């Protein structure tokens, strides 16, 4: 049901987008035609007026040469072609007609339309129609000396035919333009929403198969759709890594919980066999409390490591003094080092600040110092140092203990991994994986240099605070 609904929604969206594109295309084409039509109409009208204006200038020059008689004489000398094209009339101050020449086709024009035109001192233009309302004439008026008015007109039939031809061409192309808009809109829409279709298909495949390895096919473009696909794939990668981390954590927890749970059950069974001995029961309860605390610490550490590795751990970032944190950790472990007759040296340079979660960062240093003391023999030496290098805080924790075999150097960062030589020491095998996860969450790196029976040096590199 939901699949069909998704397809229907997608089709509706595509159709709407196609129609919107076609509508935009048609409106744009119509707007372009209207602009072009009015520009052409203006040019035609301007051309008509220019022809009439030239004729008016010619007649005014004739009149100025010898008055109305010279105008009539020169007009009679014109060819019949010019006389058949232009309407010419000279009107006196009281609208009395002094001279008129009516060309062919002007018979249907009502000259009374010109009676209401007031005398003018400048060029004046008007358009009048004949009785059929199909033909029109453009009339230009100009003043003559003596209060007379010259009226010269020309038929606009040819201009109207040209504009009519232009309108016919546009109407003939409306349907092809509309079809082109719809087809072009459909093609462009189909290409534009292809990432959305791929995204929908990927989500449908994940829902149907449960395989988080599916990804949306990515293109090399830089548009919003391509960015959406890239972000969606990144989200799937993050979810996939979270799920894998959860599976690995559950497997590791299930594997590592067997020993403490078996020990808990064994202690409880021994206490039940000797239930009349209160001291044995108290001792059994103490052992159970110790094992349960160990299990709780392991679970919390596993959760912290998983959160840090997947980037969802919440860090309370602030400006932290590296020497201050190291001094606090050194003071905390000084008593433990004295008990094992281990000398602990702290070598610090000038003040160094980093942006970090103080609590988490202090846990990192404490874990490394605890390991250094744990794996150092009596009379050993542990050194903690901090200095600045290339815009980073460089922190080292060194010991002279048993060291790490070369084949185990890359494995010490794995969760719940414990080397053969370290199994004699009590621990969960989570310390170094926790340390690396926290350092990476702070945008830093951690590495180790070690030789068997000569000791190890852990090097932390974290960006300094700006």
Give the terminus-to-terminus CA distance.
55 Å
Described by strand count, sense and barrel closure, the largest sheet is: 5 strands, antiparallel
SS content category: alpha+beta
β content, as a range? 15-25%
Q: How many strands in all?
A: 12
Low-pLDDT segments: 1-10, 420-429
Give the overall shape, derived from the CA principal axes: rod-shaped
Per DSSP, the total helix count is 9
Mean pLDDT: 78
Which helices and strands, and how do they pair?
Elements: H1 2-77, H2 80-85, E1 86-91, E2 97-101, E3 124-129, E4 136-144, E5 148-155, H3 157-192, H4 194-209, H5 224-273, H6 278-310, E6 317-321, H7 322-339, E7 343-348, E8 353-357, H8 358-374, E9 381-389, E10 392-399, H9 431-441, E11 445-451, E12 455-463
Parallel strand pairs: 7-9
Antiparallel strand pairs: 1-2, 1-5, 3-4, 4-5, 6-8, 9-10, 10-12, 11-12
Description:
This protein has helices at 2-77, 80-85, 157-192, 194-209, 224-273, 278-310, 322-339, 358-374, 431-441, and strands spanning 86-91, 97-101, 124-129, 136-144, 148-155, 317-321, 343-348, 353-357, 381-389, 392-399, 445-451, 455-463. With 466 residues, it is an alpha+beta fold. The protein has a five-stranded antiparallel beta sheet with strand order 2-1-5-4-3. The model is unreliable at 1-10 and 420-429 (pLDDT under 50).
């Amino acid at each position: 049901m939901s699949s069909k609904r998704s397809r229907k929604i997608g089709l509706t969206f595509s159709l709407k987008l196609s129609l919107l594109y076609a509508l935009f295309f048609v409106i744009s084409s119509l707007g372009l035609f209207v602009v072009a039509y009015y520009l052409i109409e203006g040019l035609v009208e301007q051309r008509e007026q220019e022809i009439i204006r030239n004729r008016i200038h010619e007649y005014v020059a004739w009149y100025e040469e010898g008055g109305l008689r010279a105008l009539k004489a020169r007009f009679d000398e014109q060819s019949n072609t010019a006389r058949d094209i232009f309407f010419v009339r000279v009107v006196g101050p009281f609208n009395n007609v002094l001279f008129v020449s009516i060309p062919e086709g002007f018979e249907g024009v009502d000259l009374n339309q010109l009676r209401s035109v007031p005398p003018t001192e400048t060029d004046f233009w008007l358009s009048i129609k004949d009785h059929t309302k199909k033909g029109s004439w453009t009339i230009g008026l100009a003043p003559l000396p003596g209060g007379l008015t010259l009226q010269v007109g020309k038929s606009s039939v040819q201009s109207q035919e040209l504009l009519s031809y232009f309108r016919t061409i546009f109407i003939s192309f409306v349907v092809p333009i509309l079809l082109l808009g719809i087809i072009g809109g459909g093609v462009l829409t189909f290409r534009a929403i292809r990432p959305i279709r791929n995204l929908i298909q990927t989500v449908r495949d994940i829902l149907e198969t449960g395989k988080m390895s599916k990804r949306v096919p990515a293109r090399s473009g830089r548009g919003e759709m391509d960015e959406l696909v890239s972000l969606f794939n990144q989200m799937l990668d993050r979810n996939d890594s979270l799920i894998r981390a959860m599976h690995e954590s559950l497997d590791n927890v299930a594997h590592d919980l067997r020993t403490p749970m078996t020990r808990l059950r064994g202690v409880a069974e021994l206490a039940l066999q000797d239930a009349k001995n209160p001291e044995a029961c108290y001792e059994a309860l103490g052992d159970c409390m110790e094992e349960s605390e160990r299990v709780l610490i392991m679970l919390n550490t596993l959760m912290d490591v998983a959160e840090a590795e997947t980037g969802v751990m919440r860090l309370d970032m602030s400006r932290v003094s590296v020497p201050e944190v190291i001094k606090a950790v050194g003071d905390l472990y000084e008593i433990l080092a004295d008990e094992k007759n281990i000398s602990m040296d702290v070598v610090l340079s000038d003040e160094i600040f980093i942006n970090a979660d103080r609590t988490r960062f202090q846990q990192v240093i404490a874990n490394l110092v605890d390991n250094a003391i744990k794996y150092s023999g009596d009379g050993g030496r542990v050194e903690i140092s901090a200095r600045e290098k290339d815009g980073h805080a460089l922190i080292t924790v060194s010991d002279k203990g048993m060291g790490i075999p070369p084949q185990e150097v890359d494995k010490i960062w794995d969760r719940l991994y414990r080397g053969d030589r370290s199994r004699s020491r009590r621990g969960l095998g989570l310390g170094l994986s926790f340390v690396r996860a926290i350092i990476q969450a702070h945008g830093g790196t951690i590495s180790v240099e070690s030789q068997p029976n000569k000791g190890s040096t852990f090097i932390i590199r974290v960006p300094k605070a700006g």
